[in-house]
């Protein structure tokens, strides 16, 4: 942002040639009139001769003017001489003019002059004041274009006139001056402030530079102009202006009023989304932070109290519009991204590979859309950023539900596509990016996070089911061998089951590591569940303790093989470890009381273990009486109560 030049701050100074022409005319007139005074400098000496008298300029008069009068003598200047001096821009004429005004007031008070004479003399004095006022305000209207000494002269004149106004106001309570019109207060300080407002309006009203005259460019022009001009006022004018002028406040208030008026006019129209955003950015962020509280202006404007560019109610309406616009934009952008992704699935476009994993850009696109909306709101105010977070916490779950539905449709319709499994894996991997983003950026309570990510859990679960479908089909006839052979060679059967799983595992290598572990846990669960289902078929009844102990030994060996294989390939399901060994122990034990203890312990590990499941296992023990079996089952009436299982095992197993 370039620094404002002197010419930019105020309207340009009129050409000086007119002033020189006036001086030449005055010189010619003086040559023609030989009886004129010896010069204006001699005329001024009458006001400096001897001690200063009441009513003379003191500290307000320029130092150079005071020096020019020392040691000079001569008659008071005539009206014509004062007029000529003022027309040449000589502000020193303010002193004798003020004396002339006071002399007139004294004559009126003395009562020696006629009313007609007083009116005639006052009209001449007022005409001279008109000239002086125009000269002084002309200088002050272009403060950066004149020499500092001349600016000080003009300021001193205004200060003296304000002082004279105050004296006139104090004297107004006394008897009036007969025959004279009331000419004070002249209020030149007020006129100067009006000129500042006009200069501000002229500067701020200029057309922006390059580019179309759209609100965004206009706001930038207004903000840049105000900042650069006020910095020039602080750096170059404040040191020269008396404190009573409040020069920084005067300019700041004028620029602020014009800026606010322009924004208020713009806000009355039906704004597009971009203009609504830019209006809020300027009102809530750029104006208060980059202009009012900028390093060069903050200290100067702290006590001015400029306030906001728009009233609070209008700001709230604009913020509500902004939030509504952003919600609609986010919704549209996310829907468009999902539509494009679903189109890629339908067209059998293979997913990207990133670090050996199937990769989809959908999660990145959605996270970026959400993040950009959040950042956009925060660029206005942090409070608005908090408000839009609540909006996004509604929009994101709605999108995730749409995503889950679209993915489910693809799972049903795309089974024959070549890249079907790869795209399933890519979408499962998406869940990790979504989850990490939510955990890191949103910082919501865990229960809220679980609710938000619920659709992703369903998507992942359906994806796992699809990936494991072929493996489950392969394993189904192998598990049936346990009952078909009446558990004659259980280790051989289990070895074939493990080998079948091992062959399929490379198909899941392109899952993210965490999901590959989850999928291996699902495989682990499936193996244990199917094993228990075969034990619960009621087709095997062992009547001797030796037979039951032999079967228990097989079950323990099989359980160890399953646990070792699944753990070795990444299954974190330690909760499944006691599932089969405890059942083996129930089958091995012969004492009903000992069996009860095992059942009670088992029910605490697996709250979904029911009487039906227990009955199916006890049916293997052919030497157990009905009363003993009933007594054992009764332990489940008092063991777990209504506790809900944290993980499902037996609820997945149906028993007759």
From TrEMBL:
<keyword id="KW-0217">Developmental protein</keyword>
<feature type="region of interest" description="Disordered">
    <location>
        <begin position="51"/>
        <end position="78"/>
    </location>
</feature>
<dbReference type="GO" id="GO:0000149">
    <property type="term" value="F:SNARE binding"/>
</dbReference>
<dbReference type="GO" id="GO:0051601">
    <property type="term" value="P:exocyst localization"/>
</dbReference>
<dbReference type="GO" id="GO:0006887">
    <property type="term" value="P:exocytosis"/>
</dbReference>
<keyword id="KW-0221">Differentiation</keyword>
<dbReference type="Pfam" id="PF06046">
    <property type="entry name" value="Sec6"/>
</dbReference>
<dbReference type="GO" id="GO:0001525">
    <property type="term" value="P:angiogenesis"/>
</dbReference>
<comment type="function">
    <text>May play a role as a mediator of inflammation and angiogenesis.</text>
</comment>
<comment type="similarity">
    <text>Belongs to the SEC6 family.</text>
</comment>
<feature type="compositionally biased region" description="Basic residues">
    <location>
        <begin position="27"/>
        <end position="38"/>
    </location>
</feature>
<dbReference type="GO" id="GO:0000145">
    <property type="term" value="C:exocyst"/>
</dbReference>
<dbReference type="InterPro" id="IPR010326">
    <property type="entry name" value="EXOC3/Sec6"/>
</dbReference>
<feature type="region of interest" description="Disordered">
    <location>
        <begin position="1"/>
        <end position="38"/>
    </location>
</feature>
<dbReference type="InterPro" id="IPR042532">
    <property type="entry name" value="EXOC3/Sec6_C"/>
</dbReference>
<protein>
    <recommendedName>
        <fullName>Tumor necrosis factor alpha-induced protein 2</fullName>
    </recommendedName>
</protein>
<keyword id="KW-0037">Angiogenesis</keyword>
<dbReference type="GO" id="GO:0030154">
    <property type="term" value="P:cell differentiation"/>
</dbReference>
């Amino acid at each position: 942002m370039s620094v404002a030049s002197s010419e930019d701050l105020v309207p340009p100074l009129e050409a000086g040639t007119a002033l020189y022409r006036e001086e030449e005319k005055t010189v010619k007139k003086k040559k023609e009139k030989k009886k004129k005074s010896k010069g204006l400098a001699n005329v001024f000496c009458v006001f400096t001769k001897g001690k200063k008298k009441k009513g003379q300029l003191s500290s307000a008069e320029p130092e150079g003017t005071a020096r020019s009068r020392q040691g000079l003598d001569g008659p008071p200047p005539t009206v014509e001489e004062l007029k000529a001096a003022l027309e040449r821009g000589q502000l020193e004429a303010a002193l004798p003019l003020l004396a002339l005004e006071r002399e007139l007031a004294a004559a009126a008070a003395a009562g020696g002059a006629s009313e007609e004479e007083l009116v005639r003399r006052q009209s001449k004095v007022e005409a001279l004041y008109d000239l002086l006022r125009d000269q002084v305000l002309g200088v002050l209207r272009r403060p950066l274009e004149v020499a500092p000494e001349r600016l000080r002269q003009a300021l001193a004149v205004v200060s003296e006139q304000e002082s004279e106004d105050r004296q006139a106001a104090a004297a107004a309570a006394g008897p009036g001056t007969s025959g004279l019109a009331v000419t004070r207060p002249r209020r030149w300080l007020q006129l100067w402030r009006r000129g500042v407002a006009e200069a501000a309006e002229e500067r701020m009203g200029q057309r922006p530079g390059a580019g179309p005259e759209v609100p965004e460019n206009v706001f930038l022009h207004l903000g840049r102009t105000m900042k650069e001009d006020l910095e020039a006022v602080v750096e170059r004018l404040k040191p020269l202006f008396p404190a009573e002028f409040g020069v920084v406040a005067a300019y700041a208030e004028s620029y602020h009023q014009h800026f606010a008026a322009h924004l208020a006019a713009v806000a009355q129209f039906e704004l597009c989304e971009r203009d609504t955003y830019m209006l809020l950015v300027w009102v809530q962020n750029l104006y208060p932070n980059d202009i009012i509280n900028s390093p060069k202006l903050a200290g100067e404007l702290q006590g001015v109290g400029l306030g906001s560019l728009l009233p609070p109610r209008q700001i709230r309406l604009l913020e509500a519009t902004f939030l509504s616009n952003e919600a609609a934009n986010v919704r549209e952008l996310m829907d468009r991204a999902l539509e494009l992704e679903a189109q890629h699935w339908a067209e059998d476009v293979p997913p990207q590979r990133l670090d050996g994993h199937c990769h989809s850009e959908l999660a990145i696109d959605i996270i970026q859309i959400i993040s950009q909306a959040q950042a956009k709101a925060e660029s206005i105010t942090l409070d608005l950023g908090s408000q839009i977070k609540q909006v996004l916490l509604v929009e994101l779950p709605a999108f995730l539900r749409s995503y889950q539905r679209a993915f489910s449709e693809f799972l049903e319709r795309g089974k024959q596509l070549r890249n079907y499994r790869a795209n399933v894996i890519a979408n499962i991997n998406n869940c990790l990016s979504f989850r990490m983003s939510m955990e890191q950026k949103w910082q919501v309570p865990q229960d809220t996070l679980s609710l938000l990510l619920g659709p992703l859990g369903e998507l992942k679960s359906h994806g796992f089911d699809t990936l494991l479908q072929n493996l489950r089909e392969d394993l189904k006839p192998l598990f049936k061998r346990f009952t078909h052979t009446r558990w004659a060679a259980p280790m051989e059967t289990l070895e074939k089951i493990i080998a079948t799983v091992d062959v399929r595992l490379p198909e899941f290598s392109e899952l993210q590591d965490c999901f590959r572990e989850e999928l291996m846990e699902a495989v682990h669960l499936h193996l244990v569940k199917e094993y228990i289902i075969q034990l619960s078929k009621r087709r095997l009844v062992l009547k001797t303790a030796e037979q039951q102990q032999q079967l228990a030994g097989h079950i323990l060996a099989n359980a160890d093989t399953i646990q070792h294989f699944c753990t070795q390939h990444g299954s974190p399901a330690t909760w499944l470890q006691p599932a089969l060994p405890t059942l083996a122990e129930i089958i091995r034990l012969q004492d009903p009381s000992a069996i009860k203890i095992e059942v009670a312990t088992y029910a605490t590990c697996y709250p979904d273990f029911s009487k039906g499941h227990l009955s199916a296992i006890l049916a293997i023990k052919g030497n157990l009486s009905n009363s003993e079996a009933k007594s054992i089952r009764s332990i489940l009436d008092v063991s777990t109560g209504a506790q809900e299982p944290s993980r499902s095992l037996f609820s997945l197993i149906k028993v007759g």
